[in-house]
Amino acid sequence: MAQLAGTEITRQAIFLIEAGKMRPSMRTLKMIAARTGKPVEFFIDGPSGRLAADEMANDPRVDQLQALCLQQQFGDAIELAVQLLNERLPRRVEAHVRHYAGQAFVRSSRPDEGLEQLRRAQVLLEAEPDPWLAVECADWEASALYLKEDERALAVAENALRLCRLTSPRLPGTEARILEHIGAIHVKNHDFDRAVACYEQALEAAGAVRDLARVSRTYHGLSIAYQERGEISRAIEFTHKALALYALENDNALLARGENELGLLLMKQGQVARAEATFRSALEHFDQSGTQPAKSHVLLSLAELFLRTGRLDEGVDTADTAINLARELGEVMAESTGHQLLGQLHERGGKPQLADKAFATAIRVLKEHHLRARLAEVHASYAEVLEARGESRRAARHWKDAALHALPARDLGTPRAGAR
User: Fold this and answer.
1) Looking at domain 171-289, which of 1.10.486.10, 1.25.40.10, 3.40.50.150, 1.10.510.40 is its CATH number?
2) pTM above the 0.85 mark?
């Protein structure tokens, strides 16, 4: 409510408008529309508006469901949505309920359940077209696929952007969010130039209507992309911007991800002690947030620091913890990175058999999920280990496998643990 109200009106006024106890002026209505990323017609009953009585029947429970998602009370949103879906609902109402249910599942790191709801909403929309809701469903479907590390995420997100740009009036907030999501996918795919372009477009699309949480995540994405392009000073600049906004939002989970990013940058600059302190602060913020998704990334960053500083036993223990957490949450990329780091730690510790086993597990996990680009990185990393060991024939086979999986045989090293 504070974000929606801004400095123009009070949170109490927003509450009264939402509860139907106060009628907003057209100026206030336009402000609310802009900040929620909806057209003005969305809020107007009658034949000229999007919420005509025969379409939504003004069911207040749908508004309640939306409010729960906006307030990030996803457990309560899921509970209410399940309750509503046990009833016989008009198709348009059901489509909205399934959309919010899907969003709540995705934001609770339950992508499979989210996909089921979002796809059923899209089937309903084939009979009851709603271009704005179709855009939202497509974007959240892409987010669910991204969480599953499914290669189809990019195509679905780009289709959501195409649909968004076809809507009239345009939805700048939604377009900015989709562009930020596409930027994150490009980062994961190591296409950093395209990632930077998408993030910059997201800031431009948002214009004067800025969602602080969204902007902070966009800055965070820019910091990752610039880091991978080797522009460390620019990366640090955007990381500090993201951290400042995360602190304003009192979001410990996002603050932890930002600290992980800063720790990686400090480690790259050789500031190992500061990097370790930053990673440990990130773990504390994850614990305070009560959330687990992406915590494995910080553990992997810490394991990589232990590898670099020769603290091998601590590194093995930390990598094992990260692997177990990633496996529990279905974070395939993190799990494979953990096994790769474990292989490097064992190799450094003079345990080649354990190293071979760890690399073999990383490769197997990635093959099972058809993650080709990541598989190429692990093959290349293993080839370097084998070359250093003097096993040139085995190394040559893995260099070949790296090339076959669409990346050149070069010094790919250990992948960044990542904060996204």
Assistant:
1) 1.25.40.10
2) no
